[in-house]
Amino acid sequence: MGLGVLEDHALQHVPGRRRCITCETMSAKLHKGTANILESHDAQLSSPNALAGDRLKYDRSGRIPILLIPQPTDDPNDPLNQPQWQRDFQLAALSLMAIIATVLSPILAADSLVIAFHYKLDFGQIALLTGYHLLAVGITAIFCVPSACYWGKRHLYLVGGILVCASTAWAGSAGGSYKSLLWARVVQGIG
Predict the structure, then answer these.
(1) What is the value of pTM for the model shown?
(2) Fewest Cβ atoms closer than 10 Å to its Cβ: which of 41, 68, 170, 186?
(3) pLDDT (tens digit per residue) in 49-77
(4) Count of domains for the chain
(5) What is residue 177's DSSP assignment?
(6) In the chain, which stretches have pLDDT less than 50?
């Protein structure tokens, strides 16, 4: 193993580490010094079911079958079994939400002077708009990370997206109320 991690000599297969039979045979042949490693690897890939008991799934759309890692299950709800356009759409939506959530914290820094004149407040109170937002982000992370580990991330994506959209609309309609804008920023931090 790399990065100074020691090999386990007690177990045949280390738990939590994925096995690839083709790659293991290539590695064994490489250590033995076999000359035709690539030809044997291509031969194994061209007939992936030649290995006894091989139930691995391959992408057979190209000339050479490609071993799928991670292996998709037979469950139709498995995201790996979804069509490519659906996976791309989900990735684009999550990327857009990540961009929006990232820029929400420092977005008011560029307009601090304008906001200070609009609300007729000093810069300390305007800085609290970002400070309370970041405080809410930090406190929410204490609860969201264990929740994501226990129940998964889907509910966090949905609730976070709804809170961010609603609180952004709230902050935009705050008008002349500094307290309303401040609480909208706190809810944005939670989202």
Answers:
(1) 0.61
(2) 68
(3) 444 346 788 888 888 888 888 888 888 77
(4) 2
(5) -
(6) 34-39, 41-42, 45, 48-53
Distance CA 35, CA 73 (A): 36
CB burial class (10 A; 0-12, 13-18, 19+) of residue 189? buried
Question: How far is residue 174's CA from residue 191's CA, in Å, rounded to a whole number?
Answer: 18
160, two tokens? 């976070």
- Within its chain, how far is the Cα of 111 from the centroid? 31
What's the CA gap between 130 and 78, in Å, rounded?
39
Q: Of 28, 54, 75, at which residue does a domain stop?
A: 75
Helices (H), 47-153: 84-104, 112-119, 123-151
Give the position of tokens 């079911």: 49
Q: Tell which of 75, 110, 127 closes a domain.
A: 75
Domain that holds residue 113: 82-190
Report how far residue 32's alpha carbon sits from residue 94's, in angstroms, rounded to the nearest whole number: 46
Q: Are residues 61 and 116 in the same domain?
A: no
